[in-house]
Amino acid sequence: MLKRFNSFIEKWMALVTPTCLLLGVCFPDIAKHGLPYVPAVFAFITFSGALKSRFKDVANVFRHPGPLILILLLLHVVIPAAACGAGHLFFGDNMDLITGMVLEFAVPTAVVSLMWVTIYEGNSPLSLSLVVLDTVLAPFLIPATLQILLGSAVTMDSTKMMRELVFMVALPAVAAMALNQVTDGKVMKTWPGKLAPFSKLALMFVVTSNSSKVAPYIRDMNMQRVKVALAILVLAASGYALGWLVAHIFRRDRTTAVSMMYGTGMRNISAGAVIAAAYFPGEVMFPVMIGTLFQQVLAALFGKLLAQKKEE
Q: Which residues cross the membrane (predicted)?
């Protein structure tokens, strides 16, 4: 029963997250009651997603770190800088929207990218290592990115943000790998399958709860917010395209190219939404949450393009 449910959710993931977003927007008075529990639920999502990772997987990738370094540069230098530039170019009079755009592309790669990499036969050890490393570094990279690109224009408690990110992402990821280590890999063979359905439900809970805070801005849509949505769509699509393009420029094999494409294209939007809800005005969350409408759809679209290219 649970296995069938998990397969169903994975198959329709491109529709599930936008549906959860719409539920939170349509019923914010109900959805907002979940907000206090979001950090703990998100920690469970991270733990569940990292259960297939081991310390030695990370060590093996570090022996040939080229692809990993390229992905991290795209994730945390090129794309956030592009988002910041686009924000100032098109929405220079609204610092909240610019902050939201930068935050959307400052968060780590998405744990759910592992699912897409598996479906399209990518380099799983590389993707696992990226997710774990990027997740562990998130408490340092996110505040640093915001500070470097936005500086004094943004007021935030970086120390508190780092503590929350350590709780939500770094500690659960390390705990999952440590559990694999002490059980000699037995946990990674049994727990991921059992926890996967609950992880999907947890993701739905996080998206629905967080979207209650963005409800007023989506309900009161104006031309500026439509432009923000289009900018996020273009930037998100560019992330996938850049990952694939850079992989080919550096002559990486197809499996590595798949991992680089999904690694640079998919973001842990739920983490961004949690940060936006906790530390910034509501309008900052709009660019972050609107990304949930596109991410899974883009992942499926680029996956189909991959499949067609492979057939050719």
A: 12-31, 67-91, 97-119, 126-149, 161-179, 228-247
pLDDT in tens, 145-175: 988 998 855 665 667 767 777 888 778 888 9
pLDDT digits (tens, 9 = 90+) for 57-103: 778 888 889 999 999 999 999 999 999 999 999 998 899 999 999 99
| Angle formed by the axes of helices 124-150 and 79-91, nearest 10° | 40
* Residue 247: closest CA among 134, 122, 136, 141: 122
pLDDT along the chain (312 residues), means of 10: 80 80 90 90 83 78 90 96 95 90 92 79 84 82 89 65 77 88 87 86 86 80 90 96 95 92 91 81 85 81 79 56
CA dihedral 46, 80, 67, 118 (to 10 degrees): 40
**Angle in degrees, 0-180, between the axes of helices 38-49 and 171-182, rounded to the nearest 10:** 40
Token pair belonging to 13? 């993931």
pLDDT at 127: 87
The SS3 of residue 267 is strand
Distance CA 225, CA 127 (A): 33
The span from the CA of 151 to the CA of 129, in Å, is 30
* 3-state SS class at 109: strand
Burial profile 151-185: b = 16 or more Cβ within 10 angstroms, e = fewer:
eeebebebeebbebbbbbbbbbbbebbebbeeeee
Residue 230, token pair as written in the block: 């289009």
φ, ψ at 44 (rounded to 5°): -65, -40
β-partners of residue 267 are 109
Distance CA 79, CA 130 (A): 17
Q: How far apart are the first and last CA of the chain?
A: 38
Task: Catalogue the E-assigned strands of 203-275.
Answer: none
Domains of the chain (ranges; CATH) run: 34-206+221-311 (1.20.1530.20)
